[in-house]
Amino acid sequence: MSLPAGFRVIAEKTYNRAEPERGYTGVTLYVNVETGTIEERPVTDQMKELFVGGKGFGLWRLWNAVEPTTTWDDPKNEIVISSGPVGGTTAYPGSGKSIVVSLSSLTGNVIDSNVGGYFGPYLKFSGWDGLELQGKASENVVLFIDGIHGVIQLLACPEEDVNTHVLSERLMRAFADSDQPRDIAAVSTVTTGSGAENTRMGCLNFSFFDLKRQAVRIKQAGRGGTGTVFRDKKIAALVVKSPAVKPDSNKPADIKALQETGARINKEILELDESQCDMRRVGTAHLVEIMDEYDLLPTHNFKFGSHPDSKGIWSNVWREKFGQNMPDGCWLGCTMSCSHAVDHVPLTTGPYKGEKVLVDGPEYETAAGCSNLGIYDPAFVLEANFYCDTYGIDTISYTTGLAFAMECFENGILDAHRTGGLELRFGNAEAALEVLHQMGRGKGFGAIVGQGIRRMKAHFASEFGADISFMNDIGMEAKGLEYSEYVTKESLAMQGGYGLALKGAQHDEAWLIFMDMVNNQIPTFEDKAEALHYFPMWRTWFSLVGHCKLPWNDVEPANNAETSEPAKVPEHVENYCKIFSGVTGKTVKPADLITQSERVYTFQRVFGVRMGYGTRDHDAIPYRSAGPVTVEEYESRAERYDTQLQEKVGIDPSGLSSEDKVAKLRAYRESQYEQLIDAVYRRRGWTPNGVPTIGKLRELGIDLPEVVAVVEPHQ
Q1: Are 191 and 204 in contact (CB under 8 A)?
Q2: CB 127 within 8 A of CB 27
Q3: Residue 51 — left, alpha, or beta (φ > 0 → left; ψ -120 to 50 → alpha)?
Q4: Nearest CA to 81 among 194, 235, 248?
Q5: Strand, coil or helix: what is 112?
Q6: Mean pLDDT along residues 218-246
Q7: Rounded CA gap, 404 and 458, in Å?
Q8: By the 8 A CB rule, do 103 and 66 touch?
Q9: What's the whole-model pTM score?
Q10: 8-241: CATH superfamily
Q11: In the chain, domain spans
């Protein structure tokens, strides 16, 4: 095909498309955007056995690309995108995920992010089990993978506006074979925007074409700054054009098993979803009022867990606003269909003021993040959601980072002079949007917020003489990654879920609040450690094979509560065994899936050690994650905390000042967290300093010489 006007070929390679066989094509694609090198790299049997796919392939390719001294902005750093052997399956819901792996611009450590959209499956069906991007281009480039005609082109990009809602729309239409919707739908892009270029919290937007709306939709690889790495490499976009997707595109070993297993869960979703989580009508936003009810919805920088104005962003609001009044899926055949959007949203600020736009979401994390700012106006939520997406800024890091800045403002660390005239008080929607636009431009105080909480703390201490201890207590980041939006003060297990998460404070490894706080199912340290072993390993598996977590436990069989381990949803675990076996032909039991994940999870921990992280001191959490930092916080829940002092700590609170109560409760809770870490390390087979033992590496079959060499000095 002829190139769209203005594009220039920098490098080109033709190839014979490798058809998937039992979920794998057997090759990955390497592109160096600096040198123009385009290579095919074999997927070995060892790669499949040890790393499975998806996140595992990404970690292994990145491990072999970087050195211990490599930084996120080094040309040696890579962005690796892979789906996984089950990715692209249409018979089972949630099988369209891609996983992005890189060195993070926020944390410096390895980051992985699981994302919907069509790019990962389309990449596979175009012949590739994964894509490695390395080097730094000298000008903005687009990588075009034409899986229909077998051509790869690295192109100079003439487009000046690289923001997602503009660039993705243009590229999908420009590289389609015609302007017919079905041809446009054969194209998927990865883009970001000016905010990714000007902050450290850039996200990547993976597209799909909504045939009902005749419009481009996007999903985000949000965490850790993968979009920032993308723009640092001067990549404007990735474009893939895929052959038609069919039920047997993965060439599965047993398609009948896939179809029968998919039919079982599809029936559950259609019959039970509306009475359970209602994902098909409102998606993850259904959580807002639930979290508020249980005092878990962050408000005012995680000081509190509920707010009387939260009704402004409850799910009934979004149910009325979501367009089409029908389910939306971000992959073909997904009956969970939780990917909702709001049509024709009028923008009131910023460079696109006056336009009416399509907004994907809001998801729970975005709405709850706005609660954390003390803002409960749905119009603000939608405008902030849109601009974060098109600028390529992670909504979690934006809201959690800005909430920290707002508390600093209200405590006198910042003032209007230091913020360039912005009154950064909780509830100030106008100021919050202005910060977001400044982040998009890389100007003003927004440029400082865009560096993330860890760097804001250092800046405020050095430039303004702020108390670093207080900021460490209230700065909601772990390992340099901003917290996602759950209050964890009353769930020790969830504190560990955040602090021990390999990438930083992200809930996708373990979400244990209800098991721990509400249902009291894991009362002892050993119980919590067991949960913090199983659930991170189990959730890791989704990112190995190209799955979404939501169909696992956001709809449950009618009899699930009667099973011996309802939190694990055993029927669905058995489904995944059948799906993996049905695609790959390899018979597996639930324990085998956990072993697959533990192998990759442990390898990632070693990778962190190799890069200078991955030890106990890096598993620390801000105290606000564990308990009340201030007298205001304590007194807002005084009855609760007084009772805990009496019953758990053995201290009579009567006669004590609020300051003394805060200090005594803190000593107890910090001790509890340290004991939890000890128990988790023992369960995982790690040293007291958090490093996997050589014996554990040997047990898992990853005692490769280069892996053992990393941990030997720490034994």
Answers
A1: yes
A2: yes
A3: alpha
A4: 235
A5: strand
A6: 97
A7: 13
A8: yes
A9: 0.97
A10: Aldehyde ferredoxin oxidoreductase, N-terminal domain (3.60.9.10)
A11: 8-241, 255-482, 495-714
